[in-house]
Design goal:
CATH architecture of the largest domain: Beta Barrel
Mean pLDDT: 91
Order of helices and strands: HEHEHEEEHEEEEEEEEHEEEEEHEEEE
Number of helices: 6
CATH topology of the largest domain: Porin
Low-confidence stretches: 10-18
Number of domains: 2
CATH class of the largest domain: Mainly Beta
Shape: globular
Strand content: over 45%
Strand order of the largest sheet: 5-6-7-8-9-12-13-14-15-16-17-18-19-20-21-22
Helix content: 10-25%
Number of strands: 22
Length: 462
């Protein structure tokens, strides 16, 4: 009897899928794209004029298309609606475009994060402003209305940085292949040359630059499906150091010279299924990266494999959970110092912001349970007439987080006791999210060492 019941239910569901009325997609109208070319928007839409879809299919594809457009980060608001006309359904896509040209004046801290800078500022009795950088940074998003990206940076001060980046998402007729070019030059007066007691050791020599770095990249982008991306990148990296740095750490370049360089081939694959990449509440994300280094004047010749997975879901009304896991493995346990990174820079265990945990391999797990104090709320800013700024939104979340991490280091573990052991941090966070992908996270947490602190961040914790 049970077997017949299962067969009946399966047949019924299968039959319903075929018998649901199909709807003809008519005209697709786009409203609000004063700068963006229609082809850029239509590229993200998962249906087209002339398709026959069920109402369920239209709802699913409309949701996917809206998420695709939001994750382009070109629009503050996206709305997709439909109307029936003469036996077909017409689609209306409304977008509120952002402001795309940003000439940022630079006045920034020259440390890894705010907390590290504040500690040094306190030690100077609130008088040392020398750890500052200044200049201008031009970011031109949606360049030429084709979702191209142009970046130029001119930064002087304690840590000079000159940068050029130009990215074309696609140039072929099928809109699947793109290209990106990138070049940057760093000059630092205060340069870290080693890690001791889980802190960076710095070297300064008056107004002289102690490290000069160059990096060049050329990337080929491939995106046939709206949610799947491939990237093949060629890298060249060069570092020039002061003689004292070579004396303090002979493994910095690992070649007994004042110049070290190497080449790298990097393949990346991303499966993007999150509803909003900068602060996701639903969906999942998979990222895979394989690097092969080729030695130049420094013996950097190893493989690196990096993988990351994220999952976000709503577990109850206004209650969400998000979790991520990232791992990195290398084929060489003994690498030049300037070519390796563990935790403490881009990746970190929350509540360990003051520490750098170097190593050749690591894994990192992050989990947060978020309660929506204030859902996404739209409002108009008075006295502003420009559509790119007038209509805004904000939301507020209270979260409880728990992070785990582990770094394997075989080079310098005797001097850094946080390597080769479990790192654990937990705490609470108040997250404020607003338009232009801006957010403020105020966290209070405690780590495995028993250290407590308040930490400020301005990006997605995952």
């Amino acid at each position: 009897m049970r077997k017949y019941l299962i067969c009946f239910i399966t047949t019924f569901i299968f039959y319903q899928g075929f018998t649901q009325e199909k709807i003809l997609i008519g005209n697709i109208t786009i409203v609000g794209n004063k700068i963006t070319k229609e082809a850029i928007i239509l590229r993200e839409i998962t249906f087209k004029k002339g398709d026959f879809l069920s109402q369920t299919g239209i709802d699913i594809k409309t949701k996917q298309s809206k998420e695709n457009l939001i994750n382009l980060t070109l629009y503050n608001f996206v709305d997709i609606s439909s109307e029936n006309s003469g036996g077909e359904t017409n689609i209306i896509i409304e977008v509120v475009e952002r402001w795309y040209i940003w000439p940022y004046p630079i006045l920034e801290l020259s440390e890894r994060n705010f907390n590290v800078w504040w500690d040094e500022f306190k030690e100077s009795k609130y008088s040392d402003f020398s750890r500052m950088n200044y200049g201008v940074y031009l970011v031109w998003e949606n360049f030429r209305g084709k979702n191209q990206l142009l970046k130029l940076k001119y930064r002087r001060g304690f840590k000079e940085h000159y940068l050029f980046r130009y990215e074309i998402p696609y140039f072929n007729k099928e809109k699947t292949i793109g290209i990106s070019a990138f070049a940057q030059h760093f000059r630092r007066k205060k340069s870290f040359y080693n890690t001791m007691d889980n802190k960076l050791l710095y070297y300064e020599n008056g107004d002289k630059y102690t490290i000069k770095d160059y990096e060049f990249q050329l990337s080929i982008l491939y995106r046939k499906n709206t949610r799947h991306k491939h990237k093949l990148r060629l890298n060249y990296l060069q570092s020039n150091i002061a003689d004292a740095i070579k004396s303090y750490n002979r493994y910095y370049l690992k070649n007994e010279k004042l110049k070290g360089d190497y080449f790298q081939i990097n393949y990346q694959y991303a499966n993007e299924q999150r509803d909003y990449v900068h602060y996701p509440l639903h969906g999942h994300y998979l990222h895979f990266q394989l690097k092969k280094n080729f030695e130049g004047s420094s013996p950097v010749n190893h493989f690196e494999l990096i993988g990351k997975v994220e999952k976000h879901m709503e577990i109850s009304n206004r209650l969400f959970i998000g979790s991520s896991f990232k791992a990195k493995v290398s084929s060489d346990d003994y690498q030049p110092y300037f070519a390796q990174k563990g935790l403490g820079f881009y990746d970190y265990v929350r509540t360990y912001e003051y520490y750098v945990v170097d190593g050749q391999h690591y894994w990192l797990s992050k989990t947060a349970i978020k309660y929506e104090l204030i859902g996404k709320t739209n409002f108009d800013i008075p006295y502003l007439k420009m559509s790119q700024f007038k209509k805004a939104h904000y939301s507020l979340y209270l979260s409880v987080f728990s992070d785990l991490g582990y770094v394997i280091d075989k080079q310098n573990n005797e001097n850094n006791d946080l390597t080769n052991q479990l790192l654990f941090g937990r705490g609470i966070s108040l997250d404020y999210v607003t338009y232009y992908d801006k957010m403020l996270r105020i966290e209070f947490g405690i780590n495995r060492l028993g250290e407590k602190g308040i930490f400020l961040h301005f990006t997605n914790p995952f």
